[in-house]
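Subject: sequence -> structure tokens, single chain

Hey, anyone have a minute? Need the predicted structure for the following. Not urgent.
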Amino acid sequence: MTLAGLLCIVTTQPAVAAGNLTLPFNIPNPRITSWMDHHYPNRQADGIMVRFDGATGYAYDGHRGTDYAVASNTPVVAADDGTVIYSEWSTDGGWGAVIDHATDRTAYFHNNQLFVYPGQHVSRGQLIALSGSTGNSTGPHVHFEVRDLQPSWHSIDPYGWTGKGQDPWSYDAGYLWTSNPPVPFLLPLAFFGGARWNYWYGIDGPPSPVRWQLRDGGHGFAGYAAQWDADPGAEASRVQALSGSAAVPGPGSHTLHLRVWDRAGASADITYLYLYDVDPPTAAATIAAVRSTAVTLHWSGFDALSGVKDVAVDVSAGGSVFRPWLTTSADQPGRTQGAVRFLGQPGTSYQLRLSVRDAARNPAPTIVTTASVPASAGPPPTVNDRAILGPLPELPQGTAQAGGLRQEHPLVRGAMVLGGDASIEGLGGNRTVAVTPPTSPAPAVDVATTNTGSILLLADGSSWNIDGTSGPHFGISAPVRLLASTTGHLTAVQTNGATVLAGSAQPGAALSLPAGASVMDAALFPGMDSGLMLDSLGGLHAFGGTDAALAAAPSSWTLPAQPAALELAGTVQAPAGILTDATGDWQTFGSLALLPDAIFRGPVFDPTTGLPVR
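Reply:
Had a minute. Here:
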């Protein structure tokens, strides 16, 4: 009976209609960097790669879809009418969506943002996402799949099979495209600002109001309707304006529904997700009975709304300073738990400190517990013992950092990392710079490199050369960045955007930042003491008379994570730069030819596809 069932599965051809798809973006002749593997498209490498025309050895072994090389934030549209059945994050695919059609399903992965939700009906050509490079990706592209309905996991090549002989994969359904060029997205486009999409707000303050700007997609604009947590519906009253805003209702998970109409009478529901959690998580820690040198801490954390995100356990031996022991990103909804074990010294008392934060960065009350290793306990395991027991972690080495780590801008010799204790190392710890510690006890905030050497900026506004001599004092209370221009001038930047040149008595005026925002980074134009600043909501601001540059720079943050860094080159009239988020994703503006070579010591570009490999 089992054999008969298997033969039936192998010989039955799926009933999939041809000619029902259009490309998922308005690019008539897209560049394909990886075709579907006809030999065995199940994400497993089997040593053979076959394209639709019979060519071999061309792309990813086991690749289930087609990779189109399109720029970040290209509008991604539905390839056919259907119902959204999946719209969320996955580790490999990043932000992805799957749409169920009458005869098949289509999937769209590695996006920066999603604008649809499960259960939503979409029309062919409707905006569903903005492309990106999230998840397991080496550069901006759209991973597009067509999936058969029987079995539901199987992928189909929409380009069919044109090679000699039979298709190696018997389930392939043939050429599925209904038109070329694709159906463009004709409804108005929506661009969101203010509060960030799918980002948990919490201890850092409430989300700023959501803003949107609409642009005609080709059939004319006929109004919009906005509503929280429900589609306003096709019969809702319309607002005749190209922009609007709305405050997030309050703590919880909320979806803004923005229904837009064109003059042809069509409408679409575009969704935007906002998350707000003000309740701290709870945590618990217990130490198992200590009868030997092994000390085991069992820990747990619980958060009902945003979920436990960060867990840290620090260790103190005999009343010494706490040192990092375990740091992990749980990223679990509801309850998460675990255990950590280390080998102590006989007769020594240890304190273990548990810190838990939720995804909104709300901390749980810190828990400190004590464990004592009996004096009669045997010595810690030897190398031979470890061969039997497996790898066991050592006690944390060294001393605790005074103020954490901060990555400096990439330099000609490679990126630098500044410690809060004023130590400077190469990224990854592969090179150490000799620094004489300053006499000020304030933590180090930033380091800048000039023609005469490197100079440190401390949290109290003082500065120190790496040889230990005092530098200029900057009259600001919360410095975040020290900028060194090619003219030899030093500029300190405060979290509110105020700047002060070395030697000036008072800082300039603060920026007009959105509520709850602060400056994350700043950069200078070459040969100038002025440039742009990046705030914590992703907005760019000019300082020192460079307002003209904003017309050519991104108007809002479109990467999925926390804004982190800004690189700047070019001129005020023709700026170029790179915006980076906390996960390392980045987007460019202006011409990359204007950026100095030193910035690209990290990224490596594939010579065939031109895509960056991180």
